[in-house]
Amino acid sequence: MIEIVTEVDLFHPPARTWRALTERALLAKWFADSSPGSDRWVLATAALPGYDTDTEVETVELRAPHRLVVRCREAGRATRLACDLTPTAHGTRLSVREVLEEGDWDADARAEQHEQAVTGRLPAILDWLAFQNVDLRRAEGGLTAELPVVRLLGEERRRSRRRPVLLAAGAVTLLAAAGAAAALWATGDNPSAPAALPPSAPLAVPSEAEPAARPTTARPTPSASRRSASPSSSPSPTPSRTPSPTPSTVVTAPLSATYETVNDRLFGYRGEVVLRNPGPAPRPEWTVTVTLHGGATVGSVNGAEAAQDGSVVTFTGAALPGGGSVTIRFDVRDPDPSHNAPAGCAADSTPCTPA
């Protein structure tokens, strides 16, 4: 006997979870469309991984909102699928158990389908249902609640045991790092000054606050250089020009970045950008920009600081050593279910490539 078991902990009551399992319109949003019926109906599973054709479903046991047992037949295969809902202190524990009774199947593909549906798309629909009950008409500003973010815990352990555990957190926190962006622009205003001045010029910049000290230190310097100017004027430009091209070519080595959607949900996704510095010298400053679709917002971010301006999200972080890399992961909430990736991605001015 081959058996596939998937368990998930949800921050939603059993009644709401039961609706998503049994109401046709909701079932179509996170799993598959179904034809009308009472004890027998048909699920449109022909295009789903792990299934060969549409599935004929017969109800065996129905105890709302705790237990649903059905028998499924598709492509010469018969299985028995049981969904058990157990109330918990924070919501519901859903256990989905499918047993092969007749025929054969690809157990790994079927288990992957269970995981994607039960630990990814189902929680997203429950979040959406919960949001319908939020009162958005508060007089004292702000929402009473925000769309939750689906967070997967223990992904590697879940795949090996075929018992995924999901935690649907109850709030999204938008990161606003305008201060980091302002700091980058502040340092970007001065590079032109050293290019026009000799190497000793930076010493004169901080002395602007003491105008009396600046002439006394500045005058002896040119007078001494003039006495030896005739023999030493020609060699002085030569060493100053020789080292300047070398560091500039190393520092400006272009960065490269790859993008991948690591988790796809009904109303959003989790993206991952891997930024690499192929040059030998460290990059003290770098910027990755991701352009979202209209109405989308960025949530939790790992590996960088983030600031969103309209549809553009700017990521910045610590210095990137030569030959090093940094991984940036971020959650996106998008009201359009058809979007599972941003509209654009670039490292500095270089477009990201698919991972």
Automatic annotation (TrEMBL):
Pfam families: AHSA1 (PF08327). Residues 202-233 have a biased composition (Low complexity). The chain crosses the membrane at residues 165-186. Keywords: Membrane, Transmembrane, Transmembrane helix. Residues 244-355 form the CBM2 domain. InterPro entries: ASHA1/2-like_C, CBD2, CBM2/CBM3_carb-bd_dom_sf, CBM2_carb-bd_dom_sf, START-like_dom_sf. Residues 193-256, 334-355 are annotated as: Disordered. CDD domains: SRPBCC_CalC_Aha1-like. Residues 234-246 have a biased composition (Pro residues). SMART domains: CBD_II. Belongs to the AHA1 family. This is Uncharacterized protein YndB with AHSA1/START domain. It comes from Micromonospora echinospora (Micromonospora purpurea).
